[in-house]
Amino acid sequence: MKVEFAPLNIPLARRLQTAAVLQWVLSFLLLAQVCVGIIVILIIHNYWFLYIPYFTWLYFDWRTPEQGGRRFDWIRNWTVWRYFKDYFPIHLIKTQGLDPSRNYIFGFHPHGILVVGAFGNFCTNYSEFKELFPGFTAYLHVLPFWFRCPLFREYLMTCGPVSVSKKSVSYVLSRQGGGNISVIVLGGAEESLDAHPGKFTLFIRQRKGFIKIALTHGAYLVPVFSFGENELFKQINNPEGSWLRTVQEKLQKITGFTLPLFHARGIFQYNFGLMPYRKPINTVVGRPIPVHQTPHPTREQIEELHQTYMEELRKLFEEHKGKKKKNKRKRTGKGEAEL
């Protein structure tokens, strides 16, 4: 195979974009392990004056990811995030206005490999979010696992992510005055195993917990479809029933997360590496679905609202898929729907 190297005369802006995405990918893959390693080194060398105060503070701060987190605009305003956004580039598209006196749940689809669109649009101040939805604060809910990693949890929270636990979502949606948005990547780690270029496989049929919590708090539901999310990486073939898929699914059941074996381009060449391809990501925010607050929803009410959400999500996909041709496939079993 002939290796295609990047030309030497690439503009500085594009080089900075590549560097911005590289640091994000490495942070996603390695920073948690590095932070745990730092704590281990401090303990081994008995730097008690550093780790004991931190663990003491951590004991009292443990619930912060379930109580709105601790974001810092200074970090969300880092110039690196502007280059990160422009690398793909990432765009947020609004189809209808939202009432700032209400709280909302954004159901984000698809998960993709690294959920790039969700991070770029809702965890930095360089997306169009503030201009399109003035008066709103978005909270991207991620796996609680990440907030159990010492030091890493502090960095993660500065950009805005919070836990995806029921308590965390309820905290956001119960805040008075409205203007709060819980962004939930509904397919989760399970969906990432089917993130392949050219198709969307959404694990949504059995995902009904967000419906119940929306009814409980009277939070309006909004489907969000991120076109281009599955085009950023290629994944080693892992069909249902293969040994690789079996191992990945067992890992997901044990730990709550799994990491697909993915690859894309390199830093200085375009044939192989962990850098995502430069593919545009267009994240489309759909029409809000009115939800009447029901403190104790019945199974029938949950099922009815779930069907409404599924239909609105399908409409959103059909209305906007023409911007870039996608493969459309029929629904399948096992709780997923392929688009």
UniProtKB/TrEMBL annotation:
The chain crosses the membrane at residues 21-48. Residues 322-332 have a biased composition (Basic residues). Pathway: Lipid metabolism; Glycerolipid metabolism; triacylglycerol biosynthesis. GO terms for cellular component: endoplasmic reticulum membrane. GO terms for molecular function: 2-acylglycerol O-acyltransferase activity; diacylglycerol O-acyltransferase activity. It catalyses: a 1-acylglycerol + an acyl-CoA = a 1,3-diacylglycerol + CoA; a 2-acylglycerol + an acyl-CoA = a 1,2-diacylglycerol + CoA; a 2-acylglycerol + an acyl-CoA = a 2,3-diacyl-sn-glycerol + CoA; a 2-acylglycerol + an acyl-CoA = a 1,2-diacyl-sn-glycerol + CoA. It holds the Pfam family DAGAT. Its main location: endoplasmic reticulum. Belongs to the diacylglycerol acyltransferase family. This is Acyltransferase. It comes from Oryctolagus cuniculus. The lineage of its organism: Eukaryota, Metazoa, Chordata, Craniata, Vertebrata. The gene is MOGAT1.
